[in-house]
Amino acid sequence: MHRYRSHTCAALRKANVGESVRLSGWVHRVRDHGGLLFIDLRDHYGLTQIVADPDSPAFKTAETLRGEWVVRVDGEVKARTAEAVNPNLPTGEIEVFAREIEVLSAAKELPLPVFGEPEYPEDIRLKYRFLDLRRDTLHRNIVARTKIIAEIRKRMAGVGFTEYSTPILTASSPEGARDFLVPSRIHPGNFYALPQAPQIYKQLIMVSGFDRYFQIAPCFRDEDPRADRLPGEFYQLDVEMSFVEQGDVFAAMEPVIRGVFEAFAEGKPVTREFRRIPYDEAMRRYGSDKPDLRNPIEMQEVSEHFRGSGFKVFAGILANDDKAEVWAIPAKTGGSRAFCDRMNSWAQGEGQPGLGYIFWRQEGAVLEGAGPIAKNIGPERTEAIRTQMGLDAGDACFFVAGDPKKFAPFAGAARTRAGEELDLVDRDRFELAWIVDFPFYEWNEEEKKIDFSHNPFSMPQGGIEALTGRDPLTIKAFQYDIVCNGFEIASGGIRNHLPETMVKAFEIAGLSRETVEERFGGLYRAFQYGAPPHGGMAAGIDRIVMLLVGAKNLREVTMFPMNQQAFDLLMGAPSPATPQQLRELQIRPMPAKKAD
After folding, report:
1. Partners of 449 in the beta sheet?
2. 394-443 pLDDT tens trace
3. C-alpha span between 518 and 180 (Å, rounded)
4. What is the value of pTM for the model shown?
5. In sequence order, what are the residues at sequence separation of 6 or more whose Cβ sits closer than 8 angstroms to the Cβ of residue 340?
């Protein structure tokens, strides 16, 4: 028999009754039932119940066992009695009566529990991540992650993509965040950068004559902490294709993404056909470019009902600002003053002066609107709003006014809040869609200049003619995102593969031809020698896994994450370099500047 095990802790079934077996694993918990000891033994695969009775030679050792000790157990498989069968456990019809127990490794008193799923301070969990990873939910999440990535690889290969690896040590490039820099010992004073994404390399792969590239790519960004991204590093499904238009990328990738979700959705419905929602429409309907489409609330403009009305606040805003609009956020079943007041208080907590509302109630044969706005605009305008928004007795509507570009994110947050508070969101499905037609440029108010809105390497719709003949802020890009349940899970575009178009696009954003040639020399030079039209996307592995396993944050689907301060509590990184390391690199740390 093998030194440590003949079976895993998930393998034994009723068919094994009568066999002598050997198991090894961790002591999950010990229960004393009147002298009879029950030990739940756990390994990577599952759990088996071990029984040690006072007549067994193993009993004396069994009495000493504590949680998370590592042991080897020899014993006989027996069937459980009918009343003792555990239908929730794959091994629940059997138990192993121990003949011999060997302690392979004892454990100190635990700094956090492994049995059960209690809430515990995150810094403790990250410092002792090797214990945290033994907990059932987190362990299953990590296993699911590996299976999801394997499924992605299988499906990508199935539709003709080939995986190619790109460098980790590379040149600095402006992907929208700070680079992690790596000093070169061989070239003193010079630095490599860790890739923020394989963007330029994957385009060069297309220029090199390859087609249908993909990679499960590590990406590194020195960003401030963000709720929707792990600090430091993350993984993405990186994709590029040659001789394609936008629709070709959609046709290739939609079945892959949908198939992965269906494979791991555990019966939850998954969108069959992804909607294609223009960016401008998404902002107006949902107040977000990553809307949760499970929320049925859709906003509409209702400016005309307030123009010249008795509600002087909104009427004045509309009269004094040509850009101003009033948007309505309908809230089915929200028609109570208590709910409306809660929404108003929430808005004030978000830094807003409040959130105007109307709610409708049935008074005898009359359906009337209530609330301060209804009183000020009168019954005729109130009824016109109700009709436009498709509302009825017991419903409510909230209103925001001003420049939509400034208030749209708040309106979107109000939509989300109302949908969740009223339990309108169908949480048991995956709703995926493409967001398309992103603006190519945006106005940087702080620097009073035009910046790229999304990816600077994308093709502007209309090409160089649009760049030379139109207001830059009206130009759309061949850029697109995939959104799912309120998260952006992928982003991509058709690339700008024409050198002169590329130069012109960067000139509008304030970068000269010389700067483009210097900063993007490899790509710019490659485009001089015959570049195919190409495009692609990148999907966030961490976010996809988080959605599929139902985790609440990205650290629950990552094996060894850093904390929100970008510190690895387990390994103690970052840490100071030794004097010898600094000498080899010819680097001298500068003391931090004191705050004034």
Report:
1. 444
2. 999 999 999 999 999 999 999 999 999 999 999 999 999 999 999 999 99
3. 20
4. 0.92
5. 334, 357, 359, 371, 396, 398
